[in-house]
Input
Amino acid sequence: MEIKQLEYFVATADHGSLNKAAEQLYTSQPNVSKVIANLEKELGVALFERNSRGMKITEQGNLLYGYARSILKSSNMIHALVQKKTGSYFCVSGYQSSILTRLVADIYEKYKGKGIKFGYREGTVEEITDDVSEHVSEIGIVYLAHSQLPCFRHIMWHKKLEYHPLADRGICIYMGRNHPWYHRKFLEFDELKELKFIEGTEDFFAMEHHIERISVGAVQMENLDNAVYTNSDYMIHNMLKHTDVCCMGIDFVSRHYEAQEIKALKVKNCEKFLTLGYVKQKKKELSPEARFYISQLEMRLKGYNESL
Output
């Protein structure tokens, strides 16, 4: 089995079409078909059902898909590591966040001209901690529910990482000008069930998976109405700007959104049930770049607290 076979398999599964997979892979449709046929022959199972509407993945194909994605991710990490030129390299992993990415711009301005290469990788909590564990990123910025800390710390122990909390936060609700509640200053907690949300990540530690456990007085949350699912930051941004769909976020908001006519409404009397912090390699001293990044993040958190 070759990496190329898995790449062709995953592309076809993602698109459900040999032609679209070929376009993504910059090759021909017959070549994609041949590679997949050889993989099926090697494994002795049918990975797809062929019909006039395209390629439908089989049960055996679904079993392979998750492992194939994991292998391809590891392969890409290996290529990225060995292709780095000599010299210093600093990378942060975190969520889709204008604040976290802006801090990378700040650290670039401070250290530019010193031969340092910079990186920022987005992902789920699992992907962020994998990046740090596998030395792809020096630090990872995460937030998760307090109720998940015991489970999370157990995972940190297995991955030989440390978690350092920086602040506790509640939630805010992002909405654009098209939403009828756009001009309000805050929301009541029990009003969340009236909103339609876009969910941006399939992450066990995502706040959406724990919000129903948060109680405020006599209010107990029902499941939220997740009307749209995506892993695209552009999709989230466009849905907020052009529809009445909302997005849930941690109560630590960049002013960048105000210029885009996207508002973050606070949730009145919401518990600070999220912890925000960073993960690092256990017993490994942080680089000056990492220390500077964390200090700037702490300053933003402190400044945000004082503005409340």
Q: What stands out?
A: The domain at 3-82 is CATH 1.10.10.10 (Arc Repressor Mutant, subunit A). The longest helix spans residues 59-82.
